[in-house]
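ENTRY TYPE: paired fold submission
RECORD: A
CONTENT: sequence, then structure tokens
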Amino acid sequence: MSKRIRRSPLGSSLQRAVTAMTRATLRTGSRVAGEVAGKLARQAVDAATAQLRPPPGPGDWISGQAIGAGGMRRFFLFRPPGVAIAERLPLMVMLHGCGQTAAGFARSTRMNRLAVRERFLVLYPEQDRRVNPQGCWDWYGTVTRQAHAEASTLMAAIDQACLLYPVDPAAIGIAGLSAGAGMAALLATLHPERFRALVMHSGVAPGAAHSAASALAAMGGRREPDLPALAQPLPPLLVIQGDRDLVVAPANGMAAAQSWAAASGAVAMEPRVLRRGRRYPATVTDFKFKRRTIASLCLIEGLGHAWSGGDARQPFSDVKGPDASKMAWAFVARQLPA
């Protein structure tokens, strides 16, 4: 997505350093200017390195590359410690939002910490900044088919993870934030048989946009979702949405859940309010068909465009909670085969 998105911390740090170095050099030709420039350059390198540094904690942070119709994309796979060769673990695919990197998203969501405790693998594909300078996934370019090409590359990354690592291919969930949520929804509609569950956090309702122009309107809540007719049933959907989101209109959350439910004939249950300590309160509405939850909407009061319960040091994270990572994994885990 591209509306009201902050520039990435990495790009901003480098730009600030270059600007400061240029000003220092122009103002004086003295040795002090050279020292200042050197210090700022080291700070810029440190900022760049921090964005690539593996998230803290036990386990393996493995880098890889996948090639598909959308070109090549880098990915990182997190493997909890002590995984046996014969094991087959669930896989959680995590798609970052605009202005984020794969490593930054891992630190923001702290999903790896949960993966260690619950024993699952986590795949973090990363958008190429040469393709999109803001790091946004192309979830909307369905008319030009660019979105489908990018989705093909992401599926190649998932296939590669299943081939090279101890993944149970029948136990894959996918989640995303913002543009990542839109791309996750596109993947789930293109390949519903591959995913046990979908989690959309602060994303646009699936099928609401087909171009850059319509994407902006959809982000503002001015477009209706239009799900394609599918031969396969859709995987269950969890929508997490803040009611103070100024980037993606909160109406998108309800629209996503309702359209997903309508595709399976599910109806809304009575909403329930969750309050725990100082966390933001949340209203949860389940949509069920024959006692099976098809879609669930968690509308969080006071949350903006940020991962709920995320690391406060990372962009697009709100530490106050409730914990979206725990909610996402719990929802996916309920859909896994026994």
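RECORD: B
CONTENT: sequence, then structure tokens
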Amino acid sequence: MYERKIIPNLNCGLDLIGEVLYGKWKIRLLWFIDQGYQRPSELQRKIPDASRRVLNIQLKELEDHGLITKKIYPVVPPKVEYSLTEFGKTLIPVISVLGNWGDEHQERLRSVILNRFNSES
């Protein structure tokens, strides 16, 4: 697995949140876990573009940061469920505001993103 060689800059809140939430699927994982999708297979169905490996890595990082907990049930096959910690629940209003901002500006954002994508092709 990749290990960072440079210590991250952690001098302000934006740096800190960037370190915790950096990862393509982390915000969506937190949102879906809050919505009740707790099993890895459910999360995979909600985010079909993500590989199972990447989801597992990002779930582990969220767990390491204390935002989610993982419960493994002693059954065969093993059953795993994720839930938000109290600390993780404090991010949901922030994610909601970001999502609302994206919804309000979706046409402009979509246009900018597609223009950038088309200019790179």
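NOTES ON RECORD B: The beta strands are 68-73, 79-84. The chain has a mean pLDDT of 91.
STATUS: closed
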